[in-house]
Amino acid sequence: MAKTALIVDDSLTFRQMVAMALSDAKFTVIEACNGQEALDKLAGARVDVIISDVNMPVMDGITFVKQARARPQLKSTPIILLTTESQTEMKQQGKAAGATGWIVKPFKAAQLVQVVTDLLP
């Protein structure tokens, strides 16, 4: 059974790049352009991993992670923040919110797939 990934990023280009990398690794991909849209899509879906940007309109990635972690079905779902942010303070905020990992853009597709695969059972 294919694993499902939710990609959350306001940049269509980055969503497409991540989707292509994960689709090539046999993932089913769901996309959202901000944290609120992602939460709405999660209401009716089961996902195995979430990859989210930090800086987005409507709802940023840190707020999204906090709200996702408040949902019982997402307590143990790996959430990776994929962002241009690299400051230690921002990474600490992500970890405190419940993020599982942090990858700085630009990224290599193989690296992303490896991280995602390593986080899944």
TrEMBL record:
It holds the Pfam family Response_reg. The modification 4-aspartylphosphate is found at D53. One of its GO terms (biological process) is phosphorelay signal transduction system. SMART domains: REC (SM00448). Keywords: Phosphoprotein. It comes from the Bacteria. PROSITE patterns: RESPONSE_REGULATORY. Residues 4-120 form the Response regulatory domain. InterPro entries: Bact_response_regulator (IPR050595), CheY-like_superfamily (IPR011006), Sig_transdc_resp-reg_receiver (IPR001789). This is Response regulator. It comes from Gemmata obscuriglobus. The lineage of its organism: Bacteria, Pseudomonadati, Planctomycetota, Planctomycetia, Gemmatales.
